[in-house]
Amino acid sequence: MDENKFSALMGLIVPQIVSLISSRYSCDELTASDEFYRSKVYALLEQEDTKVWHFSPLTILNMFDEEKKTGEFVIPEEG
Q1: Burial state string for 48-70 with b = 16 or more CB within 10 A and e = fewer than 16
Q2: Domain assignment present for 18
Q3: Cβ–Cβ under 8 Å, residues 25 and 51
Q4: Domain that holds residue 42
Q5: Residues 50, 67, 5, CA angle at the centre, nearest 5°?
Q6: pLDDT digit string, tens, across residues 25-72
C-alpha cells in the first residue's frame, strides 16, 4: 500500500479506536488518544508492514485492553 493510502486509512481507523477507548474507560478523547498513542498496539498499527490495520477497530481495542491489563497482548490470527 502506498504511503498516502496508508495515512488516509490511519486517519479513519485511529479516531474510531480512540472513541471506543473513550467510551470503554469513561475518559475524554484527549486522554484516550494519549493512552493509545503510547501503547505497543499503536506502535504496531502505525507500521504498515505489520498488517495490524487489517483488524477491525473493535479487535484493536481488545488488543489495547489486553495490553492495558497485562502489559502484553496477542495479535489474533486471521482465519
Answers
A1: beeebbebebeebbbbbbebbee
A2: yes
A3: no
A4: 3-70
A5: 30
A6: 999 999 999 999 999 999 999 999 999 999 999 999 999 999 999 999
- Residue 79 CA: distances (Å) to CA of 34, 68, 76: 32, 25, 9
In 3-state terms the chain splits into helix, strand, coil percentages (rounded to 5) of: 70, 0, 30
The whole-angstrom separation of Cα 22 and Cα 6 is 24
Domain-located, residue 75: no
pLDDT band at 17; cut points 50, 70, 90: very high
Say what the pTM is. Answer: 0.91
Structural domain count of the chain: 1
